UniProtKB/TrEMBL annotation:
<keyword id="KW-0547">Nucleotide-binding</keyword>
<dbReference type="InterPro" id="IPR003593">
    <property type="entry name" value="AAA+_ATPase"/>
</dbReference>
<dbReference type="Pfam" id="PF00005">
    <property type="entry name" value="ABC_tran"/>
</dbReference>
<dbReference type="InterPro" id="IPR050319">
    <property type="entry name" value="ABC_transp_ATP-bind"/>
</dbReference>
<dbReference type="InterPro" id="IPR003439">
    <property type="entry name" value="ABC_transporter-like_ATP-bd"/>
</dbReference>
<keyword id="KW-0813">Transport</keyword>
<feature type="domain" description="ABC transporter">
    <location>
        <begin position="2"/>
        <end position="246"/>
    </location>
</feature>
<protein>
    <submittedName>
        <fullName>ABC transporter ATP-binding protein</fullName>
    </submittedName>
</protein>
<dbReference type="InterPro" id="IPR027417">
    <property type="entry name" value="P-loop_NTPase"/>
</dbReference>
<dbReference type="GO" id="GO:0005524">
    <property type="term" value="F:ATP binding"/>
</dbReference>
<keyword id="KW-0067">ATP-binding</keyword>
Amino acid sequence: MLQINNLSKAFRGKQVLRDIRFSVAPGEIVGLIGMSGSGKSTIAKCMLGLEKPTEGEILWNGRSLLTWNQKSSWRQAIQIVFQDPRASLNPRWTIQRSLAEPLINFNMASDKRSKWQPKELDTRVQQLLLEVGLDERFMQRYPDELSTGQCQRVCIARALAPGPKLIVLDEPLSALDVTIQAQMLVLLKELHATQQVSYLFISHDIAVVSELCERVLVIDKGIIVEDNTAQGLIYDTKHAYTRKLLADTPSYPNFD
Ligand SMILES: Nc1ncnc2c1ncn2[C@@H]1O[C@H](COP(=O)(O)OP(=O)(O)OP(=O)(O)O)[C@@H](O)[C@H]1O
């Protein structure tokens, strides 16, 4: 589904990604882990067309994302959830409007030839809220009336709205306290089971990544140094940098 080949990126001569290669298969949950500044977000930005790679290609079902029209179907197929949910929501928009916008933009109406009927749109927004554990009372609220965890649930609902095949989750739990992180992990697992969506889960937290991901890529200074299963990452560590990440992980909570 997603295939990244030989991806490199330099900012003003400073090389931040070197020869990145990996793929994400349909339904797969792939973790991308590394310390701050290792290049994780730059990979995500290249995938979403927010940064232009210096070299390499990003293929979606065999077609290059770099030459594809911005409005074409990959914009719908790949969605992103950022670290700071409040900064990702328009503070002047109700939650209803934030969730209705992608439904309208990507023309997700059941009858694609006609526009959304207001009632049908509200029903779909309610469904999206329910899918992330919120109810219809949130529709008329503004982001500053919600907790950070609730805002992140709204951001996840917004990412789900266009019916994506892959969601890039860029440090989505970092702004949340540990109890809320555990609830969000449960939600992400449930959504993965019900929505037939793949995740690229970006984090610096090896505990969270190993809890959610089947496969984990470890990135150090712009180079992928390890591609392992979540179990293998902990019990059969292949690279010294991964061992350092593990050593730096404080005794983490058990999310079961
Ligand atoms: N627009 C930019 N211009 C110049 N340098 C940049 C730019 N964006 C990122 N960088 C640099 O690229 C490197 C990788 O940054 P990136 O944000 O991808 O790392 P990261 O692993 O996501 O870090 P974090 O976990 O702190 O978000 C860093 O050294 C950063 O300073």
